[in-house]
């Protein structure tokens, strides 16, 4: 669990429960209501539904406090990625992980193809190489742990090196969540979330977010969101905020389940390799027997659901190379596992039965 920081005297568990609520006044509801509005009476700050919404604001307030910055919500994680990458112009260089969320890699490849950016792919576990690649770059993109390779970056050391080269640092914090890692507190400039995953946490919402302490970045991202309209629906932010009330409990339970399951998988004869960074609810395993064996595993369980996405209360898994966009350096037999909050022995029994086949 993250400790209080100078900018937030309260622990993350308290912030998750209390932030983004109406003032404690008689007859106020305890929860910020769901406001469905495309327009507002003129003369105020919001004016129009593409510019602001009180339910977004409550979600943004809570996430901002959790990450230690100011948040802006987007219609999806990829809409937030697109908005940040659109701030890079005129063929400038972006340094990015060679393994990270495939939708991010696809956007980078697309920018490069159109001559909008030059992309330098790096191994984020090699701090010196990442910092060296920042020379003349406009932006450093990190994701840690990476999806689905489960690599971990030294965000603090890399950010210090990138800043020496004058390069701002983005961290996709989707896997760790602010409960386990707060990149802004250790030097990163911008945090990105697919709030679709752990933040909302119940596999029923698509939502993204950007968080920063830098007012110029905040304004640029806000302007871009207004212009392009990659805005969330109010219901999505309502559900995500409701989900975030239990973020700390879900992350703690998923993590304790994942630790135990990763430990047992490491000794299992059907598993060639177990990748678990020691924290969080995500595991990747490489199954012996390649794609066929991995596919058989994903068909062989009854509790674990074969599905893409991650970070829900329920345990899900999938063979990532079934997607054409996944880099070839991700093994064919790699199964990404999102460990849920069920009983750990039930999860293990289900998995073990499928692995035995
Ligand atoms: C899912 C994901 C995204 C994209 O988010 P969407 O909400 O699906 O658009 C970005 N980064 C990571 C690490 C993800 O897992």
Any overview of this molecule?
- The protein is of the alpha/beta class.
- It has 2 domains: 12-244, Type I PLP-dependent aspartate aminotransferase-like (Major domain) (Aspartate Aminotransferase, domain 2); 248-356, Aspartate Aminotransferase, domain 1.
- Helix content is 37%, strand content 17%.
- It contains 12 helices and 12 strands.
- The strands form 2 sheets. A 7-stranded mixed β-sheet has the order 1-7-6-5-4-2-3, with helices on both faces.
- α3 (77-85) runs parallel beside α4 (102-113) and α5 (127-133) runs parallel beside α6.
- It binds pyridoxal-5'-phosphate (PLP).
- Pyridoxal-5'-phosphate is lined by residues 76-78, 101, 103-104, 143, 147, 172, 174, 194, 196-197, 206, 208.
H/E series: HHEHEHEHEHEHEEHHHEEHEEEH
CATH superfamily of the largest domain: Type I PLP-dependent aspartate aminotransferase-like (Major domain)
Count of β-strands: 12
What binds here, in terms of ligands, is: pyridoxal-5'-phosphate
**Quick check: average pLDDT?**
97
- Give the low-pLDDT segments: none
- CATH A-level architecture of the largest domain: 3-Layer(aba) Sandwich
Q: Order of strands in the sheet with the most strands?
A: 1-7-6-5-4-2-3
Q: How is the CATH topology of the largest domain named?
A: Aspartate Aminotransferase, domain 2
What is the radius of gyration? 20 Å
Number of domains: 2
What is the overall number of helices?
A: 12
């Amino acid at each position: 669990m993250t400790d209080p920081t100078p900018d937030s005297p309260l622990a993350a568990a308290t912030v998750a429960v209390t932030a983004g609520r109406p003032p404690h006044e008689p007859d106020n509801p305890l929860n910020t209501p769901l406001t469905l509005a495309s327009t507002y009476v003129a003369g105020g700050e919001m004016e129009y539904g593409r510019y602001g919404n009180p339910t977004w604001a409550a979600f943004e307030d809570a996430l901002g406090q959790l990450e230690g910055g100011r948040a802006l919500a987007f219609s999806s994680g990829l809409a937030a990625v697109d908005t940040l990458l659109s701030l890079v112009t005129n063929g400038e260089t972006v340094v990015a992980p060679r393994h990270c969320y495939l939708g991010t890699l696809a956007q980078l490849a697309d920018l490069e193809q159109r001559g909008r950016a030059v992309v330098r792919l790096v191994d984020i576990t090699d701090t010196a190489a990442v910092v060296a690649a920042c020379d003349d770059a406009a932006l450093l993109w990190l994701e840690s742990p990476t999806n689905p390779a489960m690599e971990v970056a030294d965000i603090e050391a890399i950010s210090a090196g990138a800043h020496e080269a004058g390069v701002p640092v983005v961290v996709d914090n989707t896997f760790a969540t602010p409960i386990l890692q707060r990149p802004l507190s250790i030097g990163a400039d911008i945090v990105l979330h697919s709030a679709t995953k752990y933040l909302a946490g119940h596999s029923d919402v698509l939502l993204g977010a950007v968080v920063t302490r830098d007012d110029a970045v905040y304004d640029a991202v806000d302007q871009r969101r207004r212009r392009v309209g990659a805005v969330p629906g109010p219901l999505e932010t309502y559900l995500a905020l409701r989900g975030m009330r239990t973020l700390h409990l879900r992350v703690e339970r998923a993590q304790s389940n994942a630790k135990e399951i990763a430990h047992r998988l490491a000794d299992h004869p059907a598993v060639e390799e177990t990748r678990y960074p020691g924290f969080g609810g995500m595991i990747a395993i490489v199954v012996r027997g390649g794609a066929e064996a991995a596919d058989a595993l994903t068909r062989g369980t009854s509790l674990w659901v074969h599905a893409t996405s991650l970070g829900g209360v329920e345990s899900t898994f999938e063979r990532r190379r079934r997607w054409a966009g996944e880099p070839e350096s991700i093994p064919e037999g790699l199964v990404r596992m999102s460990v849920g909050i069920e009983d750990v022995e039930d999860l293990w029994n289900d998995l073990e039965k499928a692995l035995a086949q």
